[in-house]
Design brief:
The complex is a heterodimer. Chain A is an alpha/beta fold. Chain A has five helices and seven strands. Chain A has one domain: 3-Layer(aba) Sandwich (Glutaredoxin), CATH 3.40.30. In chain A, a hairpin with a 2-residue loop joins strand 6 (142-147) and strand 7. Among the domains of chain B are: 1-165, no CATH class; 500-602, no CATH class. In chain B, strand 2 (511-513) and strand 3 (518-528) form a beta hairpin. The longest helix of chain B is centred in the middle third of the chain and has 33 residues, at 201-233. Chain B is flat, with a radius of gyration of 26 Å. The chains are: A alpha/beta, B alpha+beta.
Chain lengths: 172, 626
């Protein structure tokens, strides 16, 4: 045996791995995703659409106001219909409309907004669709009503007149 | 009742025979030059006992004998017979019994088939193998007894998890286990050979058969699991870098590397350390996988039950094996002085070494990605999951040189070589680049990296295809396997580049229109089946070229246990798969609809079959036909 250090070193590494696995066994628990009803917003990290700034969940919803988080995409046809209503909601004082741009191409999304107007105060650019997963979104469009970092209500599918009235009344 | 008792006592007897076998083998090893015939009879008897035990579990399942806890937990009277039988290994206890069955079968085959090897080597392999077998016996009897009684006997069972009720999944575990357990023979035999200083060309050509056989089974086992995930889980992919998939991929990578090393060792007394370490790691990685998915330390579809005691048992067992093998490797392995690693730079040996290092790199990426979350959780109680972006970023760039080396490597000769056919090598390279540029250009994103990637895959594709026809480098099995691999990478790349996806929420009667496709949600039908209720949604998809296709994905609401599964509807053609799956949106009239067009899916499956076929050919190839 030329080198006595090597076996000792490798054995040590394996002992350390053993300890880690052993410790890991102790705090075994099945990971259950949180239930999605009226709980805190998920933590996420993402890039903003118009700047290269990275934001994370803790400073995204920090204002006192209500937030409407809308998951949208330029290729999504119902989003187009819904967009008028979002433009309308933009004018509501106590509400901030924010967006997650889901699995989209930047150019298409920009064209979409310049054609129909931009209701969003901020947009998170979610090209891979990962942030939408964090939110447990089913697809596009989908909207979450948020106050104080808590999801109050969730709307699957496009918003309509009735639902926007509902949102307005909740805010009041 | 009766069958459970028979099964249980057969297991106890089997364990007893293990001890007797170890005793006889050690005695025989010390002072005799002829094989004690009792050893062979006892090995056979042990196999027979495990068969009895396994068959009685199967019978308990078929008869729906709910006095047996395993049957109660995993079966139901309304389940079709086929799934009653397959349910035997669709749970923790039963699958371990299956594992044990294969273990005892393989050592028997090993004993019957190994002829021209020293007796001491055979005995020592048997002893190591019996240590593993004893470990599994103890594990089964102590912590995972498949024959526990329940009293009073329940009227009805809990049912088999519906997502496991699938033909591909019924044969996936047995095939995969043949691969895993085959690697245990390689492990025992490598330790025995190291101890006796027998790691040589003769040993290499003897163990090569086992390596190839395990490799073919492992490849097919992974393929079946992947096919199942593709159409049953409804996520629209075939590989998710889930811990469960990773733990089968790691032994595969190690085994593939071993396969290449053993080819070198068969020709020349070199790379012995590589061969021994890889033999050890292939099996320990399989065991490590068992630990990770069965102990509940990682959460996955294979986590049948969370029992820390089980986890601890496998952990201690796994590390005992690791330390035994480390001890044997460090104290008994003598690398002979004349086998220095100084190869001529341009030779087959060098190219295989290069292949080894690439494989080791891929292996460590997968290993770190899989176990890092455990380490992090222990250190900082943070829960993270490592997803595809990590693997893609680390693996894809290295695929490029790997593919190129794979195209050129097999053309080189042993010891010293020149590159021949330079003209064709360059010509094909140019063609590949132009072709892939034209393909990728249509899709503007990441033009450079995609062009390089596709062209390196195409390069390997053309080179292997040409070799196949000229047959100058006559190793047909290698040629087919490499061709299959190039096809696999090519299909995966094109699949990634050209896939398109629409995710939307629709009510019955609604239509989704995008620039290329129109999805009409026509209606839904309900049907009552034997053990589930099915909701079939009918869609018609209109494409841009005005072809209309009807697709009918299904939701199944199983009665026992009460679980909803989605069955995707897939239209497969040579060029692409059209895949649609629906999900219930809670308390809403909407269905979540996911429609995907996935090109070249079929070719991914075909190419893996080709790869295994290459291995199979090599298994049946006659010795020394070069």
């Amino acid at each position: 045996m030329k080198n006595k250090l090597l076996p000792i070193f490798i054995t040590l590494i394996f002992i350390i791995i053993f300890i880690f696995f052993y410790k890991g066994l102790q705090n075994t628990s099945i990971y259950t995703p949180q239930t999605k009803i009226s709980n805190k917003i998920p933590s996420f990290k993402g890039d903003l659409f118009y700047s290269d700034e990275t934001i994370n969940s803790s400073n995204f919803f920090k204002s006192e106001k209500f937030y409407l988080l809308n998951v949208w995409s330029s290729w999504c046809v119902p989003c187009r219909k819904e967009h008028v209503l979002l433009m309308d909601l933009k004018e509501v004082k106590k509400l901030k409309v924010v967006g997650i741009n889901y699995k989209d191409k930047k150019i298409n999304a920009e064209n979409f907004l310049s054609e129909l107007g931009n209701p969003y105060e901020k947009i998170i650019f979610d090209q891979e669709g990962i942030i939408a997963i964090e939110w447990g979104a089913y697809g596009v469009p989908e909207s979450f009503l948020i106050k104080d970092e808590v999801i109050i209500k969730r709307y699957i599918g496009p918003l309509d007149k009735k639902l926007t009235e509902e949102i307005k009344s909740i805010i009041k | 009742m009766l069958y459970s008792s028979i099964g249980y006592y057969a297991l106890i007897l089997g364990l007893g025979i293990s001890l007797i076998l170890v005793y006889f083998s050690i005695k025989n090893f010390q002072n005799s030059s002829t094989l004690n015939t009792k050893i062979l009879s006892f090995t056979f008897l042990q196999f027979f006992l495990v068969v009895i035990s396994f068959v009685s579990l199967v019978i308990s399942f078929v008869l729906s004998d709910f006095s047996n806890e395993t049957v109660f937990n995993n079966s139901h009277t309304t389940k079709p017979l086929f799934y009653k039988i397959a349910g035997t290994w669709g749970n923790h206890e039963g699958s371990l019994l299956l594992w044990l069955l294969v273990l005892t079968l393989f050592i028997l085959i090993f004993f019957l088939k190994t002829k021209n090897q020293p007796l001491k080597y055979k005995l020592l392999t048997l002893i190591f193998q019996q240590i593993i077998i004893i470990g599994f016996f103890l594990f089964l009897i102590q912590t995972s007894n498949p024959f526990n009684f329940i009293f009073p006997t329940p009227e009805e069972g809990m049912g088999l998890n519906p997502i496991l009720q699938d033909p591909a999944l019924a044969i996936h575990p047995p095939i995969l286990y043949l691969g895993y357990v085959g690697s245990s023979i390689i492990f025992s035999s490598a330790l025995a050979a190291t101890y006796l200083n027998l790691v040589s060309k003769v040993w290499a050509s003897h163990i090569k058969k086992w390596i190839i056989a395990s490799w073919v089974f492992l490849t097919l086992g992974i393929l079946l699991g992947s096919i199942w995930a593709y159409y049953e889980l409804g996520w629209g992919g075939f590989w998710f870098w889930d811990p469960v998939e990773n733990v089968s991929l790691m032994p595969w990578l190690a085994l593939t590397t071993l396969l290449h090393c053993i080819i070198v060792l068969e020709k020349k007394q070199v790379l012995t350390s590589w061969v021994i370490i890889l033999s050890i790691s292939t099996f320990t990685l399989s065991m490590c996988g068992t630990f990770l998915v069965r102990s509940g330390i990682l959460n996955s579809v294979h986590t049948f039950a969370n029992d820390p005691e089980r986890g601890l048992f496998i952990l201690v067992f796994l590390f005992s094996l690791i330390f035994i093998s480390l001890f044997i490797f460090f104290f008994f392995h003598k690398s002979s002085p004349n086998n220095s690693n100084s190869f001529f730079w341009l030779s087959k040996e060098t190219s295989i070494i290069i292949n080894n290092w690439f494989m080791m790199y891929f292996l460590s990426v997968v290993l770190i990605g899989t176990i890092y979350p455990i380490f992090l959780e222990v250190l900082s109680s943070q829960k993270i999951s490592v997803g595809p972006p990590f693997y893609h970023k680390l693996i894809i760039p290295f695929l490029i040189p790997f593919l190129m080396a794979m195209a050129i490597g097999p053309k080189l000769k042993w010891i010293k070589s020149n590159i021949v056919d330079k003209f064709y090598l360059v010509l094909f390279f140019a063609i590949s680049i132009v072709l892939s540029f034209l393909i990728v250009k249509k899709f503007s994103t990441n033009l450079l990296i995609n062009t390089i990637l596709v062209s390196s895959a195409l390069y390997l594709f053309f080179i292997t295809l040409r070799d196949f026809f000229i047959r100058k480098y006559s190793n047909i099995s290698q040629n087919i396997a490499h061709f299959g691999f190039s096809l696999l990478i090519l299909s995966i790349l094109l699949n990634n580049l050209f896939s398109s996806e629409i995710i939307t929420n629709l009510k019955v009667g609604e239509t989704f229109t995008s620039s290329k496709t129109k999805i009409v949600f026509k209606n839904i039908n309900q049907k009552q089946e034997k053990n589930y209720k099915s909701i079939i949604a009918n869609f018609s998809i209109e494409n841009i070229n005005e072809t209309i296709e009807d697709l009918s994905p299904e939701l199944r609401i199983y009665n026992q246990p009460n679980i909803v599964t989605s069955e995707a509807d897939i239209k497969t053609t040579l060029l692409s798969d059209k895949f649609i799956v629906i999900n219930i949106v809670q308390n809403q009239d909407y269905f979540n609809v996911r429609y995907q067009v996935k090109p070249f899916m079929l070719w991914i499956w075909i190419s893996v079959i080709l790869i295994s076929f290459g291995g199979l050919l090599s298994f049946f190839k006659r010795e020394h036909e070069k």
